[in-house]
Amino acid sequence: MLEVRNLKVSYDGVLAISDVSLKVGKGKLVALVGGNGNGKSTTLRAIAGLNACEAGQIHFQGAAIDKVPAHRRVPMGLSLVPEGRRLFARLTVERNLELGAYTRDDRAEVAASVEHIYSLFPILKERRRQLAGTMSGGEQQMLAIGRGMMSKPTLLLLDEPSWGIAPKFVTKVLDTIKMVNQQGVSVLLVEQSLHKALAIADYGYVIQTGRIVMEGAGQELLHNEDIKKAYLGL
Ligand SMILES: Nc1ncnc2c1ncn2[C@@H]1O[C@H](COP(=O)(O)OP(=O)(O)OP(=O)(O)O)[C@@H](O)[C@H]1O
Ligand SMILES: [Mg+2]
Prior knowledge:
By secondary structure, the protein is of the alpha/beta class. The longest helix has 16 residues, at 167-182.
């Protein structure tokens, strides 16, 4: 589904990621974990087309997409739920969802998609008329994921969905992500916390200073002592 090879991205000449290669198979939930400033968001943004790549290739569903602009990657099936959620705080829950379908012009089907999101996240239906900015962190994250699903992605890119959420709701958000994945959407999940992400992932990559330094099946990485010591300070 997605294959990234030797990706390199700089900001104003300063290298942010130097060598990132990873794959997400169809229907899989893959985690990319690492600490602050190691290049997780840069990688996701490059895949979504928001960062230009200096070197490397990105293949999505068999096609090279390196040169495809971000807004055209969305209808191809790529959807990014950005770091910090970036909701429209002063618009209602429903309006936020509708805006997630901005690349679609099939109004009746967009309404059906909103209903589908409500079936996945009943709390959003209850709060459909509430302003997004007045909801709890966990609810806002559900909305951000719901909005990301409104473009009917085949691959969802999630940037730290557990950010700013009370610990007791983190599990709920992760369960939701797993549920979305089980419905057939492939997921690339970025998290700082190895435990959170790998608990639900099929496969994981560890990124450190802009490079992939380790990869493996979720459970394998979770129990790898080297990772705990060297990369995650656990
Ligand atoms: N817009 C930008 N301009 C300049 N440098 C940037 C920019 N965004 C990120 N960087 C730098 O690129 C590197 C990677 O940052 P990135 O945001 O990808 O890390 P991250 O792993 O997502 O971190 P975090 O866990 O804090 O979100 C860092 O050194 C960061 O300072
Ligand atoms: Mg980040």
